Prior knowledge:
Elements: H1 21-24, H2 31-39, H3 46-63, H4 69-91, H5 97-124
Amino acid sequence: MDAEGYFAEPVDEELADAPGYYAAVRHPMDFATMRASLQRDHYVTWRAFVHEFELICHNAVGFNRKGSRIHRAALQVRALTRRAHQGGWKTIRRESSARIRTVGIRLLAVHEVRAASSFATFSTRR
């Protein structure tokens, strides 16, 4: 979902060259897991959805070396999504799993587009 796909799927310690990730990260999260949770109406509050979104960035910033590509991408995603989440809250008048799912899926889709274009710009400025 993000430009490089760092947060799209659960971390594979071998493929991602991230030995010890699951020992260091207590609550792993990724966009595919969030999308599946949205489809199952797992989120009963908007705050629960936002918490898991922020968990992706928190895990990446905490596990990866400061200044690394993944660390910088996580900071970029965090900045982009905070504004989107605030806007999402305004569109939900009554919290319901179905409404959270609808808005959440839209935000994930918007994030795909924004992260791809913003990360491309961000990575060329290193």
